[in-house]
Amino acid sequence: MKLILAIIKPFKLDAVREALTAAGIEGMTATEAKGFGRQKGQTEIYRGAEYEINFLPKMRLEIVVDDGQLEAACTAIREAANTDKIGDGKIFVVNVDEAIRIRTGENGSAAL
Asked: For 4-30, what is the mean pLDDT?
């Protein structure tokens, strides 16, 4: 099993969720986050004053998938979240040793 951590732009959340559902991925956790990468924030003007925004709004997605679903899930996220502009985000993949469903006690892939 693999844990996919994806950082995306907030307005792409629905498109990514729909793409993952179409790829057969059944669960996801989304958390509001703030961060920056190469773009180092941005400058905005509000009521005539210039403000530096160092941390931009992002969404952090956590998805656990079977090894066989990994490529489809990553492709779905990448294609749905892509705007071809800086700040589109990142996808990280981490090994998961065990998963346990609290309600039934199922473990491994059955718990997904």
From this structure: 96
